[in-house]
Amino acid sequence: MFHVEHFGEIVSTCLAEQIHLIGLSLTSTQFDQFARFADELSRWNQKVNLTAITEPTDVAIKHFLDSLFGVLALPTGAQRLVDVGSGGGFPGIPLKIMMPDLALSIVEPNSKKASFLLHLVGLLKLGQAYVLNRKIEDLSRQDFGMNGPLSIVVRGLKVEDRVGLFACLLNREERLILYSTTPWFHSLDNYQLKLLDQIPYQLPQGLGDRRLIVLKKG
Ligand SMILES: C[S@@+](CC[C@H](N)C(=O)[O-])C[C@H]1O[C@@H](n2cnc3c(N)ncnc32)[C@H](O)[C@@H]1O
């Protein structure tokens, strides 16, 4: 077991070694934010069930790097992001650290997880980041603020039964981006959504095949 003081440092060093895979680079401030995020995740995870992923290399790759792959699916000039079912902050917080100008709404109905997310937003001094301690079913577009086109990201929450709900939250040309391990094979006939792209990628060190499923409101 790693001493908690070094946890974040190890995670951010590992992230630094792999970030080139997405064609991105990070500033020292951003690395510091990832290190602090990892430390808090590890610390809070001892009392709140935030994640089953606890080894530093796994946190760096399966949580942080995987979340950051989402930039490949975001539209150019994305302004507003909604992360639905964020849990320990994935993928919304890593994307926000990467793109500080993005306005982020984090939807998480579990109160303890929402407390963690709120704490994290303050600790990392993330501006324009809002935690909504609600279920997505109980929210409307107005809850995400009014300005700029919206993208919704979802990782680890079943969406197949909720496609209509997501379609209602989006305006024309806006995107629903799903982090998945399997191809999308569900019919979209009854919704104003179409499959825009499926972007496959591999996590390094043989940690798995993933894909981003990009749906667009027609
Ligand atoms: C498997 S976790 C995934 C967490 C995170 N996105 C990740 O990839 O590590 C699913 C999360 O969705 C949240 N959730 C469950 N039902 C939800 C709903 N109806 N609306 C929004 N979030 C929900 C749960 O509380 C949980 O934190």
From TrEMBL:
Its EC number is 2.1.1.-. One of its GO terms (cellular component) is cytosol. Its main location: cytoplasm. GO terms for molecular function: rRNA (guanine-N7-)-methyltransferase activity. Keywords: Cytoplasm, Methyltransferase, rRNA processing, S-adenosyl-L-methionine, Transferase. It is found in: Cytoplasm. The keyword Transferase applies. It comes from the Bacteria. S-adenosyl-L-methionine binds at residues 85, 90, 136-137, 155. Belongs to the methyltransferase superfamily. RNA methyltransferase RsmG family. PANTHER family: S-ADENOSYL-L-METHIONINE-DEPENDENT METHYLTRANSFERASES SUPERFAMILY PROTEIN (PTHR31760:SF0). NCBIfam families: rsmG_gidB. Specifically methylates the N7 position of a guanine in 16S rRNA. This is Ribosomal RNA small subunit methyltransferase G. The gene is rsmG.
